[in-house]
Design a protein that fits this description.
The complex is a heterodimer of chains A (253) and B (432).
Chain A lengths: L3 E10 L2 E11 L4 E5 L6 H9 L4 E10 L2 E2 L5 H7 L1 E4 L6 E5 H15 L7 H12 L6 H5 L1 E2 L5 H15 L3 E5 L7 H14 L5 E5 L4 H5 L4 E6 L2 E6 L2 H9 L5 H5 L2
Parallel strand pairs in A: 3-10, 3-11, 6-9, 9-10
Antiparallel strand pairs in A: 1-2, 1-4, 4-5, 7-8, 11-12
Chain B lengths: L2 H5 L7 H17 L15 H4 L4 E2 L21 E5 L2 E2 L14 E4 H7 L1 H7 L10 H8 L5 E5 L9 E7 L6 E3 L2 E6 L4 E10 L5 E11 L4 E9 L5 E10 L4 E8 L4 E10 L5 E10 L4 E10 L5 E10 L4 E10 L7 E10 L5 E10 L5 E9 L3 H8 L5 H17 L5 H25 L1
Parallel strand pairs in B: 1-7, 2-6, 5-8, 6-9, 7-10, 8-10, 9-11, 10-12, 11-13, 12-14, 13-15, 14-16, 15-17, 16-18, 17-19, 18-20, 19-21
Antiparallel strand pairs in B: 2-3, 4-5
Classes of the chains: A alpha/beta (253), B alpha/beta (432).
């Protein structure tokens, strides 16, 4: 069974239609890159899939493991195993990062009828997962994302992902604002989680990230639809030629 | 107003006290209770208090049971004052170090006459404040805490004021006098409680004197009946290098007014005024604070936070006065309110009066609803809407709650606050 089936998806934000009939098919174990120029609807796709209230689905359907994803609340989607790494992680004053993660992890465990982790078990898990992403203890003690640098925020997102172990992870421009060291760290965190049962949708403007997270498929989004799909070499072609060579083809339709 | 009651006001005790009561009664007759035409009461209409014929509170039955269910009433050291009268049976004064004078104000009038006379009524001004004049007219008893020079008291002293009646609405005028000698240290918690659903009027006045190099931590836990009226005034005087902190939690009451007034009257003093209030339904909570920097090199820090639901209203007025002489003042004021419903409102005003030129004064107010993006972020990690909302409200309250150094009190307050909030939110959810 496929993991995610997006069929003819239409999404509007603030009354304006942004996605205009998007199709996407993701199997377990696959990494799909979604590329495209600014305003093409890349982030809209990521946010609509995670259930952001500002994005209204006006048509089409999305099945996650055969279930109607669009009928689920954002938190239900998360507990079912859909994770989004935010392009702009939100600062949440007063909420301790570690406590928050423990609550989130236990909410998910409860959903699957698993016993909640106690403080000791949780800390063991945290230590194990934090090494790879170089998450130090101060980042755990601080309020969620508060005062974090751009790189720290993105690392924290991937750290959340590593702890919550989703089935489908959507990375929304996780590479934006990262220097090369942070980018490699984030990529290593993602690569460590690649497995035959887990899929990734990597939304990015640039090919750069895809050097480190090598995708199985690359899709080009333009004007609210996927206009071209291919293998990892498509990303390199886009890098070399820019998006311009795709858009005239579109205009001629 | 309250003319019959005033005629039957308490008599006796030392001559100066009788004179003070008479002056209180006379001033109240002249001032009456404030109206919204008074700038200090512009947003707080207390006319519902005047509309009820409150009788002076007397003896009541079942007082021990009346403490049940309120925060930290099992404190090792506690003074229980019922309807303004000290209750020896319910109070527990064991475990206090020798030399400290803690107990009934009525007893102190004879046992420590000179101390009481020196300090009592020095800060609580009957001339301009109607409610203070009314309180003063009825002074008879209350709580007294005197810590001699150099003595530090570790155990917090919990004063619990209970107001209630077996028949009809009553008024009580709780009174507290705290005198901390030079180099002493003490923590005093004042709780105000009453039977849930009872209508009564609690009109409290507290005076705190913090001696040189002394430290006083003061807590006010207001858990009055949701149908009660609570008017409270806290007056503080600090001497050189003294440290004072106030943590005010307003959880109950239908119409509530808290005045906190601190005079930093010695160099190098430090004053913290923090507050957290919670209101729902049609309730009103008004916090008026005033910090008077009278001497140089004093710091003041103020954080007030409110959580409002239903059609609740709140008022915050934060006055900071920096006298000409008070150079190197460092004053910081923050006022934030979380409005959980469209019907909730707040009027907030910082009021800075600065007469010195070398000072640092900052103030900020932020009023708003829960951040949608933050809620979505938490939900995207698997928490339900209710869990996300509660987590954000907890975080909002934490800054004030975490300032409570008495751990069992902090824990009790946290439970109390979030139980009440859960009820409010469940009510709101049921309506929507």
């Amino acid at each position: 069974m496929s993991m995610l089936d997006v069929k003819n998806l239409h999404v509007a934000a603030e009354g304006k239609e942004i996605l205009k009939g998007l199709d996407l098919h993701v199997n377990p174990g696959e990494v799909h890159a979604i590329m495209g120029p600014n305003g093409s609807g890349k982030s809209t796709l990521a946010r609509a899939l995670s259930g952001h209230p500002h994005y209204a689905v006006t048509g089409g359907e999305v099945l996650f493991e055969g279930k109607d994803l669009l009928a689920m609340d954002p938190d239900e989607r998360a507990r079912e195993g859909v994770f989004m790494a935010f392009q702009y992680p939100v600062e949440i004053a007063g909420v301790n990062n570690a406590n928050f993660l423990k609550a989130a992890l236990n909410a998910k465990r409860k959903h699957f009828g698993l016993p909640e982790l106690d403080a000791m078990e949780f800390m063991q898990l945290v230590q194990e997962k934090s090494k790879l992403l170089e998450i130090d203890s101060s980042m755990l003690k601080r309020a969620v994302n508060e005062g974090f640098s751009g790189g720290e925020k993105k690392r924290n997102e991937i750290f959340h992902m590593a702890l919550l172990e989703p089935k489908l992870a959507i990375l929304d421009e996780t590479d934006s604002g990262l220097d090369i060291d942070a980018l490699q760290l984030v990529a290593a965190g993602v690569n460590a989680m690649r497995s035959p049962d887990r899929a990734f949708i990597v939304v990015t403007h640039y090919q750069r990230l895809l050097t480190y997270i090598v995708p199985d498929f690359v899709h080009v989004l333009s004007g609210g639809k996927i206009v071209k799909s291919g293998g990892k070499e498509l990303a390199l072609e886009l890098e070399a030629k820019g998006y311009g060579w795709i858009e005239p083809a579109l205009a001629g339709r | 107003m309250f003319a019959n009651a005033l005629e039957k006001r308490p008599q006796g005790g030392p001559r100066w006290l009788d004179d003070l009561r008479s002056r209180g009664a006379a001033r109240f007759a002249a001032l009456g209770i404030p109206t919204v035409r008074d700038e200090e009461w512009r947003f707080t209409n207390v006319s519902p208090i005047a509309a009820i014929d409150f009788k002076p509170a007397g003896q009541i039955s079942g007082t021990a049971a009346r403490l049940d269910g309120f925060a930290y009433t099992d404190a090792p050291v506690r003074l229980v004052v019922v309807n303004g009268r000290f209750d020896t049976t319910l109070s527990r004064l064991k475990g206090l170090p020798a030399g400290v004078h803690v107990g009934s104000l009525a007893d102190a009038l004879t046992d420590y006459a000179d101390i009481v006379q020196r300090y009592f009524g020095q800060l609580a001004d009957v001339n301009t404040r109607g409610f203070t004049a009314l309180n003063t007219a009825f002074v008879q008893d209350g709580a007294f805490v005197h810590v001699p020079d150099g003595l530090a008291i570790e155990a917090p002293i919990h004063v619990i004021f209970v107001t209630g009646s077996d028949d009809g609405p009553v008024m009580a005028h709780p009174r507290t006098l705290i005198v901390a000698g030079a180099g002493s240290q003490v923590t005093v918690i004042e709780s105000y409680v009453g039977g849930p659903g009872e209508t009564y009027f609690s009109n409290a006045v507290s005076e705190v004197f913090v001696g040189e190099n002394a430290g006083v931590d003061h807590y006010k836990i207001q858990e009055e009946s949701l149908d009660a009226f609570h008017i409270g005034a806290l007056h503080v005087h600090t001497s050189r290098s003294a440290r004072f902190s106030s943590h005010s939690f307003a959880l109950g009451g239908r119409i509530v007014r808290n005045d906190a007034h601190a005079i930093l009257d010695g160099e190098g003093g430090d004053c913290t005024l923090n507050g957290l209030y919670l209101a729902d339904r049609e309730r009103l909570i008004d916090n008026h604070t005033a910090i008077d920097h009278a001497k140089p090199h004093c710091g003041s820090h103020e954080v007030y936070k409110g959580i409002l639901g239903g059609s609740a209203r709140a008022v915050f007025n934060g006055k900071i006065i920096v006298r000409q002489d008070a150079q190197k003042t460092d004053a910081k004021q923050t006022n934030r309110a979380l409005l959980l419903t469209d019907g909730a409102t707040i009027n907030t005003k910082p009021q800075l009066e600065i007469f010195a030129d070398d000072v640092k004064c900052t103030h900020g107010a932020a009023i708003g609803q829960l951040d949608d993006e933050a809620i979505f972020y938490l939900r995207a990690r698997g928490m339900t809407f209710a869990e996300a909302r509660d987590m954000l409200i907890h975080a909002f309250a934490a800054q004030v709650l975490d300032g409570v150094a008495v751990e069992p009190l902090r824990a009790a307050l946290e439970t109390e606050l979030f139980d009440q909030l859960a009820k409010d939110l469940a009510e709101a959810d049921a309506k929507s």
